[in-house]
Amino acid sequence: MTEIGFFGNFELALSNGEYWKNEKLFHEIEKRGFSNFNWTEIPDDVLLYIFIHDQPTIGEKRKDATKKEYLRDLNQFLSYLYNPANNLPSLRELKPEDLLGYQRYLEGKYKKTTLLRKTSVVKHFFRYLASKEILERDITLQLKRPKTKYEELVNRDLFDHEVRQLLDYFKIADWFAYSMVFSLVTTGMRIMEFSTAKWRNLRYEERVGLHVLTVLGKGDKERDIIIFDDVLEVIKENRRRKNLNVTVGALDDTAFFPKPDGTHYHSTYLSNEFTRLVSNAPFDFIKDRFVKEELSATEGKHIKYRITPHTCRHYTAAFFMDKGIDIKSIQDLLGHASMHTTDRYLRRKRSIEQHAAVKLGEKSFINSLTN
């Protein structure tokens, strides 16, 4: 077992897969000052450890899921670095062109969204090392920003008639899927919010005559979700089938959308199950999406057309816009920090409605010639 010791008091067992969870060593390093260490002898693994634990914002911690993702991407980089076939120097001797070479390597393996994320993590890592003077200079200057035009990466269109077909089908075929689809298309909840919500955080607001669920959104910010009465009845039935409490306002610590024992599903599991179940639904519009994905792949675009939990957020935004709800209210409903994000959700829909041919108000071109 490789162990790195500092001050004779702290040891970091790098062979332990959970080593990254131990924050004590980082806090000790931070307290004593980065400039007081000879970083030339510190293993690369420890540099990764320090990077993922140094929070960019005071008072806001990175989530464990984010740390694990960073660690996975950076370990992939180290594997590339250590591969003799790549003929690279040590981490501290890398040059800008070496990082560009790694980006070219990733480009041949991943779609654009993944390439953007992995490039971003490596860039932040090396800029961090330079800012702490662990490296003499920032070597990320030659890295290129992957082209990530939103429309080229994903298609989030979901229409009312498709939602109706999915709900009608799953209501009979699969109550688990029915509960998920109904909850997500009507609330705009993120799958992480849905998976971590608790039953005790559901209440009835007499002022508006609706039930409200408080969830923990991005940045650990609380926000309120309106649960329509028909959606609540579906959620209650899901709980009844698992012999769980359905009394609103009860001090019940079980999950809002629970496992049979009342505990929470992991968000990744729910996301994967949602996508799998919807993808297997027997509808032509589902099959067409996969055909479009295959065609886009042959053209080198790799646009994702399949329906995911995030697709439901886009649908919710479009649904409320169709009902005449203002964009600021939709922004608040979705929990967007910036209205720009909400605007991006709705841009495609608005571009069609504001098209010159639509504004003409004619379905027949010949008829328009006589008007």
Automatic annotation (TrEMBL):
Top-level division of the source organism's lineage: Bacteria
Family indicated by similarity: Belongs to the 'phage' integrase family.
UniProt keyword Transferase, yes or no: no
Domain Core-binding (CB) intervals: 56-130
Keywords: DNA integration, DNA recombination, DNA-binding
Signal sequence residues: none
GO molecular function: DNA binding
Protein's UniProt name: Site-specific recombinase XerD
GO terms classed as biological process: DNA integration; DNA recombination
Domain Tyr recombinase: 144-359
PROSITE patterns according to UniProt: CB (PS51900), TYR_RECOMBINASE (PS51898)
